[in-house]
Design brief:
alpha+beta; elongated; single chain; ten-stranded mixed beta sheet; 15 helices; Helix Hairpins; 549 residues; 16 strands
């Protein structure tokens, strides 16, 4: 990989090529870091160290209008221009690297949660379907549930599936609280019984309890129907029933009057129909009042068949006949109304007589009816208690099943076990890198703490911390596919440590850019002669390749 840098902070010009390792040497304040920073920025996106774009002008060397870096590798390249922070790339695989690979983030400084997520991602430790199903089966969950959980994981991922399960758990607990009328608790729910619960309900069924309710209701209805009545009510019914003969006679008389009225109406209508019709004239003369007809364009007088006296007499006869029919209709309607009233009274008396007959001799007392009502209430309460108990038990079991799913999906569940397997391999790689470098062993424990030579990272010396960080940086860059590593301030190591660093980096598939303070170029080995790279000397912002001898 070749890097060409212009006017970036303290670096005026640099062409650095890393066939394996590019070692950047120089005294303090001469531009080593200014040579490494633009390389790191180009590899990770454009703006180094999280600097805001609005302040990118600070990256341009004083007196220059712009700064740039170009990285070239295998026919692909990436360029970054400041202060615009414009990044361009060409080729199928433009050079890039992770934040850890370029030194922008160190693994020991990360939050434990972020460490876990990083290792899961680069080590590909998420459990496969078989591992998940085995864990769920061990928790007592069915194959159907196993398939559903895996389907959610495939569709949404592990964390989203976990959030879904937790939300379901909250919903189920709310359902249980609505059923039981109190806040859910696992121990409480395991021994909860509703008010009115009876021990024998544990061995019955919904069908049996529903049958009990039906029988109790039928018994109540029967007792109500056969309930004995008081003497006053019997006397009232008897008195009403005694009027049956009078009511029947009154109804018969009313029926006779209806028949007579119908006959009278029939006769009145027949008499009316016998009368001749009055001649009907549409027009009369406006002068003499005689009937006329309009024909052939003129009015002609009509010869009348009746004299005025005869017509007047016929009109009176018709009027008298119409009045007779109307009177007969009124009398018939009145007779029918009287008959309806009489018949209604008769039917009421007959009903009272039947009720009297049905009530006489009945022995069910009010207390027995009350007892039947209580039996209905008890049967209904037992059914309700049974249903509440079983519904609460069903929801409780769903909560436990969902909790088992949550425990498996939790980061500390099956994913932790899978991560520990991957972590073992990762620590093996760290051990190998340390062996190559001749350093003490670096290790990441299950709690994500880092140790060097079995000593916690926070208790290590600065040079030991550097060894641990670089070893982790190199290993992670291998796993995440970074194209290059950027390491600065390697001068914290002694000569043996520096030699170990070069051995470690020389064995990697990616190239490395390493910054190191040195009093003179010859203070570092000739990497080109060793066949592992090149070394450069930075002075007053200019970077040039140097050789020993």
């Amino acid at each position: 990989m070749k890097a060409t840098i212009k006017n970036f902070m303290g670096c005026a010009s640099a062409e650095v090529e890393a066939s394996k390792i590019a070692l950047i040497l120089g005294l303090n304040g001469q531009g080593k870091t200014s040579t490494l920073l633009p390389i790191a920025a180009a590899l990770r996106g454009g703006v180094p160290l999280g600097l805001q774009k609005t302040k990118a002008g600070m990256l341009v060397k004083t007196g220059a209008g712009a700064a740039s870096v170009m990285l070239e590798e295998d026919g692909s390249k990436v360029e970054v221009f400041w202060p615009k922070c414009e990044r361009r790339s060409e080729g199928v695989s433009a050079p890039e690297a992770s934040d850890i690979a370029v030194g922008a983030v160190t693994f020991p400084a990360m939050a434990d949660k972020d460490k876990v997520e990083l290792l899961r991602d680069i080590l590909k430790t998420d459990p496969v379907k078989q591992e998940l199903c085995e864990a769920l089966a061990d928790a007592g969950l069915s194959e159907k549930v196993q398939e559903a959980v895996w389907h959610n994981i495939e569709a949404e991922g592990w964390d989203a599936s976990l959030d879904r399960a937790k939300e379901k758990g909250r919903s189920l607990k709310s359902q249980w609280a609505l059923i039981a009328g109190e806040t859910y608790g696992e121990k409480k729910a395991a021994s909860w019984f509703p008010q009115g619960w009876e021990n024998d309900l544990e061995t019955t069924s919904t069908e049996a309890l529903e049958a009990d309710v039906s029988l109790a209701r039928a018994d109540l209805e029967d007792k109500i129907a056969n309930q004995a009545i008081g003497a006053d009510e019997l006397a009232r019914l008897q008195e009403k029933a005694d009027g049956l003969a009078d009511a029947e006679k009154k109804c018969d008389d009313a029926a006779g009057k209806v028949t007579e009225a119908q006959k009278a109406l029939k006769e009145a209508r027949a008499a009316r129909e016998k009368l001749p019709k009055l001649p009907n004239y549409d027009l009369v003369c406006p002068h003499c009042g005689k009937p006329v007809v309009y024909q052939f364009g003129k009015l002609e007088a009509i010869k009348q068949s009746l004299s005025a006296e005869e017509r007047e007499k016929l009109e009176q006869q018709i009027l008298d006949a119409d009045n007779a029919v109307s009177k007969a209709e009124r009398e018939l309607n009145s007779a029918k109304h009287d008959f309806i009233l009489a018949d209604s009274d008769l039917q009421a008396i007959k009903k009272a007589k039947e009720e009297l007959k049905a009530k006489q001799g009945k022995t069910i007392q009010p207390a027995e009816v009350d007892e039947a009502r209580n039996a209905v209430r008890k049967a209904e309460t037992r059914l309700q208690s049974f249903n509440r108990y079983n519904e609460a038990l069903r929801v409780h079991r769903n909560i436990l099943e969902n909790l088992a799913i949550i425990n498996v999906l939790e980061p500390e569940g099956i994913r932790r076990r899978s991560l520990e397997k991957g972590l073992s391999d990762f620590n093996g790689r760290l051990e190998y890198l340390c062996y190559v470098a001749g350093w003490a062993c670096v290790k990441v424990d299950g709690d994500m703490s880092v140790s060097y030579n079995d000593r916690p990272f926070v208790l290590c010396s600065e040079s030991e911390k550097f060894r641990a960080k670089v070893t982790l940086q190199a290993a992670i860059a291998e796993y995440d596919g970074s194209h290059a590593l950027v390491v600065d301030a390697a001068d914290i190591l002694d000569n043996k440590g520096r030699a170990g660093l070069l051995k470690l980096l020389a064995g990697q598939s990616y190239c490395s850019f390493v910054g190191m303070m040195a009093a003179k170029p010859s203070a570092a080995p000739d990497l080109k002669k060793l066949g592992i790279g090149r070394k450069y000397w930075v002075e007053a912002g200019n970077c040039e390749e140097v050789y020993n001898g």
